[in-house]
Each structure stands twice: as structure tokens, then as C-alpha cells.
Design a protein that fits this description.
The complex is a heterodimer of chains A (about 350) and B (about 325).
Chain A lengths: L25 H18 L5 H24 L1 H35 L5 H5 L13 H32 L2 H14 L4 H16 L6 H25 L3 H9 L4 H29 L3 H6 L19 H10 L5 H32 L6
Chain B lengths: L8 H5 L5 H37 L10 H38 L2 H16 L2 H27 L16 H25 L3 H9 L4 H30 L2 H6 L19 H8 L6 H35 L3
Helix pairs in contact in B: 2-11, 3-4, 3-6, 3-8, 3-11, 4-6, 5-6, 6-8, 7-8, 8-11, 10-11
The chains are: A mainly alpha (about 350), B mainly alpha (about 325).
């Protein structure tokens, strides 16, 4: 704004509307320059990589800001600085994600072998052994939780979409939302408090773990299913009613089949959410070293997350084999969860009903 | 399908219902009611099991000074760590949401959203392992620097813990863990900004940042607040990461980098429960009840803000 105030007699007055603008390569140029300076500071020992990167980003916004301010004015400069800040915030969020994945891969691959998946920990001290028992436990408990949650969640969603009117429906919607926020450890305590009444203090049981997980899973299933049932076109329902099909058959034969991909995707994501849960299982299922196949029998039952937790936090002597097993279990878990997430999203994407 | 005869005038006057319909409607409604019953059951059973601890004499409880003295430092630690996590995560999440909704190329936006959502898919136990083995040593070095240069601020008074198993580390881990939910909700709200507002502001010559400041942020403010509260709810209840990383020693202190860290309710339950018997179990369940009430209050408030906003904004 200051350049146009006192034009020298020899030069023509610059047009106020056509302010200069930076060339398109300007941000990249300052970025590269800042990166070079940042890399140069790395040569001095004792400086963190993180500090160098932060320095480079700060330099970049400073250089670009001043340059833009001189050529384009302060408003454009502010815009450019915000763009830098916002983009680097996104890159910053990727740092923990990448770091987690790299760490788990690095440390987990040490014991990621056939023995790890085919042996239990029964009678194992030190090296060797595996997580067969924990995988079996996780599959049984999560499967039971899914068997409880899917019917309840599906029917509740049907109620909300097809029948829900009035205060009850409002209450259900509201409390389903609230239920998604229940801390997992509280769900574990609930299952414990429930089973103590029947089996007495100190109860540990696989089924109790499944109950705790389904408390966490039901709201997720309801939410996801409700969303997809809502987008089933009303014309389909009306066409079915017009043919004299009763409502319950319409729901079963028309509405749910139309939405089945979305439901499957929602259920997969819900399973992905609970399969990595540790806290409730730590409380009500505990851990053990051998394969337990009956979740209704009173006694401890190992699961993958709880196995990883105990191997890591209470390792035996020597520590290394225990820690390696913990990381390998973590790697297994993260692979399973990511695969489930991917499958869920792919199902949703591929088979989504056409919405107009 | 057999057609039953009409039974009464009222039934005939209303839409005619077949038995299958009635059973199905009943089952659906029953499932809905079951959810309410379970939620009430959570409160009731926790209350029932916590009761012995509420009525017990002070010296019978762990710690020996009564339930309030037992739960108070834990509640303090829970609130402090969650609040710090929120302070770290919210501005970052708003920036990320803006990046995805208004800065990134349209075609990439959804994929970038998935990447941030992937963070939410990582189980909390893995954040615990990662936090202890990767983050904590770095935070320990950083804490030394903080103590040296910013030690006059009570938060960084030190002496800095050498292991990094401190309040600061778990706040950072919690911030990473709640980042995806805050980002996802804020992103949805930002995308709902009326297109006309945005275009009008651009047409008046606003730069992108001015458009965001004047059209997007005012519209999305309440959404961001409720997103932050949902994140707060998550951070309050987070268990395993805290249980693994934090080395608790009780006591109430604002010193984030020292060795005397208050534990959190959830982490304390996870650490103590497997070895506890008798009244100690009841005391832990009582502390769980406190956590349940706190998170319930936070979540109800957040949902209430969302619901109120949905009514007057005309969104959806």
C-alpha cells in the first residue's frame, strides 16, 4: 500500500488494481531454500531433526511472507503464511502415523514367523513360543461380541429409521451417541460388576469380555447402519407396499438387501474398533498361557492386545524374547485392524447404492 | 400370507397391521429399548459395586484416607492430561480440517481424510508401546531443554525426569489419539459452510484466508467446540497408552516434566485391578463411576451443542 503514495516524476504511476504477484514457483523456491538451510544446520551435531525441520518451515514462511508482502501487499502475505501453516499442520499429523508404523514394523518383524502363529505360550520360559492361544481367544471373544452386537444394533437402527417417532426414538438416538463416548475401561468394569453378581468376586471369563466389547460395539453398528438405511430411496419401500408386501418383509427383503454393503462396511469398521481393545479384556478376561476354547467356562482367556500388554510391561528374564513377542503381537494387531478398516471402506465404496 | 380378521374398530381405523408386522416392530423397538437399558445398567451395576467403597470407613480403603482423598489426585491427573491433550490437538486438528476441506486439491481431499482416520484405527495399546519406546526418550531430552530455558514457568519446573514417562509425554500421545475425531467432525462442519457465503466473500476480493476467517470459521465455530468436547471425552477415558507410558506416583502437581506425576483414573484401574481384591476392587469401581459421570457429562454437552446447531443452521 505504501508504494503508490509518492510517485517519482520520471516513472509512471503503478495501477492500484493490478498489483504485482509472485511467480507460481515462488513458494517452491523459498521451500527449497529453507530446506537447504535446515539441512545445513543439521551438520552441526546436537541439533534434533525435528528442530531443523521446524526451523526450515519457519524460515520458509518468513521468506515467503516478506517477499509476498513487498510485491503483493500484506493481505496476500497473510494468506500465504496461513497456507504454509495449514499444510505443515497436516504434514505434522503424518509424523506420528508414519513413526508408529515404522517402529512396529521394525521391532515386530523380528519374531513375525510361523512358530509365532502356531505355538501357545504354555510352558514357555524365555525364547520361542507364540500367540496361537491369544489369537484364538481374540477371535472367539470378538466373534461373540459381534454375534451379540450385530442383531441388536441392526434392529435398533431399523427401529430408528423405519419406526422411530416421538420421544423414545429421540432418546435412543441421543443415548446411542452418548454411548459411543463410554470409556472402554468403564465397559470392562460394567461387565465385571454384572458377572460378579452371578459368579462371585474375582470372576474372569471370556464371555464377560464379549459383553464388555459389545457395549462398545453396539453404538458403532447402530450409527453406521442408521446412516445407510436412511439413504435407501423411499420409492423402493413404496413400490413394495404397493404390491401388498407387509412392512416387516419390505424391511427384510428390500431395505436391508439394498443397504447390505453399507451395513457390512459398518460392521467391519465396528469389529476393527473393538478387536484392538485392551482395557476391558484386561479387567474381565485376564490372560493365560494355554489355549482356551470355551468362553463360557469360568477362567482366564488370553487375547492378543492383553498378551502384548503383559509381555511388554511385565517381561520375564531375559527381557528380549518377551519384548520381541510383544512387538510381533502389536504388528499382528495393527495389520488386522488396518486390513479390517480397508475392507470396510472398500466394501462401502464398491457396493454403495446409487444415490441421486 | 393369511389375513387375520379385523378385531376392533380402532384397529380398522388405524392402518391395518399384520401379526408379522407387530412382532417385527416390537423386536425393533425392543432392541432400541435394550440400548437404553444397557446404559442404565452400566450406571446401576457400577453404583451397586461401588457402594461398599462409598460406605466403608476411611482407613479400610487403599491409601487409608478415605475415598475422596483416593479419587481426587486421580481425577486431577485425568483432567490435567486430557485438558493438555486438547490444548495441543485442537488448533492442529482445525488446521488439518481446513487443509482437507479448503486447501488440498479436491481430488485428493477424501484420500487425505482417510489417512488421518487411519490414526484413529491404531489400537491404543500400540500407541502405548510406541509412546514408551519412541516418544518418551525424545520428550526426556526436550524436557531437559525446557527445564533449562523455561524452568521459571511452574509447568516446566523440573527436575526433568530422565525416562520421559511424564505428564507431558502422555499429553502428546493423547493429543495424537484424539486428533482424528476432532479433525473428522470439524472437517464435516467446514464442508457444510454454505457455498454462497464462500463465493460471495471471494467475489468481494477476499483472499482464501480472509474467506475462511469470515465465512467458514464463524459458521463452524460451534461444530469445532463440540468436536473438541468429543475429543476431550476420548482423552478422559483413554486407558492403555497412559497405563503403559506414565510412571505414576500420586500427588497433585502441575509440574509436567518431573517424576511425581498424578495417575489418571482409567490407567489406575488398569494397573491396579488385576491384583486387587475385596474393598480395593470396590474403590476402583467407585473411581470408574466418577470417570463414567465425567465423560457422560462431557459427551452429553458436546452432543447437545451439535444438536442445537443442527436445528438452527438448517444443515443436513
Amino acid at each position: 500500500m505504501t508504494t503508490a503514495t509518492t510517485p517519482p516524476a520520471t516513472t509512471p504511476v503503478p495501477l492500484r488494481l493490478a498489483r504485482g504477484s509472485l511467480p507460481r514457483w515462488a513458494p517452491w523456491a523459498t521451500l527449497v531454500a529453507a530446506a537447504v538451510v535446515g539441512a545445513a544446520t543439521m551438520i552441526r551435531p546436537g541439533l534434533h531433526t525435528a528442530v531443523a525441520i521446524l526451523l526450515a518451515i519457519a524460515l520458509h514462511s518468513l521468506a515467503l511472507g516478506t517477499w509476498s508482502r513487498r510485491v503483493e501487499g500484506s493481505r496476500r502475505a497473510a494468506d500465504r503464511i496461513v497456507t504454509t501453516v495449514v499444510s505443515s499442520a497436516f504434514l505434522l499429523a503424518l509424523v506420528p502415523l508414519i513413526s508408529v508404523i515404522v517402529t512396529v514394523l521394525q521391532k515386530g518383524l523380528l519374531r513375525f514367523d510361523a512358530e509365532f502363529f502356531t505355538y501357545s505360550m504354555r510352558g514357555i520360559v524365555g525364547e520361542g513360543g507364540g500367540v496361537y492361544h491369544a489369537i484364538v481367544g481374540t477371535l472367539i471373544i470378538t466373534g461373540l461380541a459381534a454375534a451379540i452386537s450385530i442383531p441388536v444394533g441392526l434392529m435398533s437402527a431399523v427401529y430408528l429409521v423405519e419406526y422411530g417417532r416421538g420421544r423414545l426414538a429421540k432418546a435412543v438416538t441421543f443415548f446411542v451417541d452418548v454411548m459411543t463416548g463410554i470409556p472402554s475401561i468403564v465397559a470392562g468394569l460394567f461387565a465385571y460388576a454384572l458377572f460378579v453378581l452371578v459368579f462371585g468376586p474375582g470372576v474372569r471369563m471370556g464371555f464377560a469380555g464379549a459383553i464388555a466389547l459389545s457395549v462398545l460395539m453396539v453404538p458403532v453398528v447402530v450409527r453406521a447402519t442408521e446412516e445407510v438405511l436412511k439413504i435407501v430411496p423411499n420409492e423402493l419401500r413404496e413400490a413394495s407396499y404397493a404390491l401388498g408386501v407387509p412392512k416387516w418383509r419390505t424391511v427384510f427383503k428390500v431395505v436391508i438387501p439394498t443397504a447390505v454393503a453399507g451395513i457390512a462396511s459398518g460392521v467391519t469398521l465396528a469389529i476393527a474398533r473393538v478387536i484392538g481393545e485392551t482395557a476391558p479384556l484386561l479387567i474381565v478376561a485376564g490372560t493365560t498361557t494355554s489355549v482356551i476354547l470355551n468362553p463360557f467356562e469360568e477362567g482366564r482367556m488370553a487375547t492378543l492386545p492383553v498378551f502384548a500388554y503383559y509381555s511388554y510391561s511385565v517381561p520375564g528374564v531375559p527381557r528380549e524374547p518377551y519384548l520381541d513377542r510383544a512387538w510381533a503381537a502389536a504388528l499382528t494387531l495393527i495389520l488386522v485392524v488396518m486390513a479390517l478398516n480397508l475392507i470396510g471402506r472398500v466394501i462401502a465404496k464398491l457396493f454403495a447404492p446409487k444415490v441421486r | 400370507m393369511s389375513i387375520p380378521a379385523f378385531r376392533s374398530r380402532t384397529a380398522a381405523a388405524r392402518a391395518y397391521q399384520r401379526p408379522g408386522d407387530r412382532i417385527f416392530a416390537g423386536a425393533a423397538q425392543g432392541a432400541g429399548i435394550a440400548i437404553l437399558v444397557v446404559l442404565a445398567g452400566v450406571a446401576a451395576f457400577l453404583m451397586y459395586e461401588a457402594w461398599p467403597a462409598l460406605t466403608a470407613k476411611a482407613d479400610q480403603l487403599p491409601g487409608g484416607d478415605g475415598l475422596v482423598a483416593y479419587v481426587l489426585p486421580l481425577a486431577f491427573g485425568t483432567l490435567l492430561s486430557a485438558a493438555l491433550a486438547l490444548v495441543i490437538a485442537t488448533p492442529l486438528a482445525v488446521c488439518i480440517a481446513l487443509f482437507i476441506s479448503h486447501y488440498a486439491p479436491r481430488r485428493l481431499a477424501q484420500g487425505l481424510g482417510y489417512i488421518v482416520d487411519l490414526l484413529a484405527a491404531v489400537p491404543s495399546i500400540i500407541f502405548g508401546l510406541w509412546g514408551l519406546s519412541v516418544l518418551a526418550p525424545r520428550v526426556a531430552t526436550f524436557s531437559l531443554w525446557l527445564e533449562e530455558h523455561l524452568g521459571f514457568i511452574p509447568l516446566f519446573a523440573g527436575p526433568a525426569s530422565a525416562t520421559g514417562r511424564t505428564m507431558l509425554t502422555i499429553s502428546i500421545v493423547l493429543a495424537v489419539m484424539i486428533l482424528p475425531i476432532i479433525t473428522a467432525v470439524s472437517r464435516e462442519v467446514f464442508l457444510q459452510t454454505p457455498r454462497l457465503h464462500e463465493e460471495a466473500s471471494l467475489a468481494l476480493g477476499a483472499t482464501r484466508w480472509e474467506m475462511i476467517r469470515m465465512a467458514v470459521l464463524p459458521f463452524g465455530k460451534s461444530g469445532v467446540i463440540s468436536a473438541a468436547m468429543l475429543g476431550l471425552g476420548r482423552a478422559l477415558g483413554e486407558t492403555m497408552a497412559v497405563a503403559i507410558i506414565l510412571s505414576p506416583s500420586g500427588g497433585i502437581t502441575f509440574n509436567l516434566i518431573g517424576q511425581g506425576n498424578p495417575s489418571t483414573i482409567a490407567a489406575n484401574i488398569a494397573l491396579q485391578f488385576p491384583e486387587s481384591t475385596g474393598l480395593a476392587v470396590n474403590a476402583l469401581i467407585a473411581s470408574g463411576l466418577v470417570l463414567f459421570v465425567i465423560t457422560l457429562a462431557v459427551n452429553v454437552t458436546a452432543r447437545w451443542v451439535v444438536a442445537r446447531r443442527a436445528e438452527f443452521s438448517g444443515a443436513n
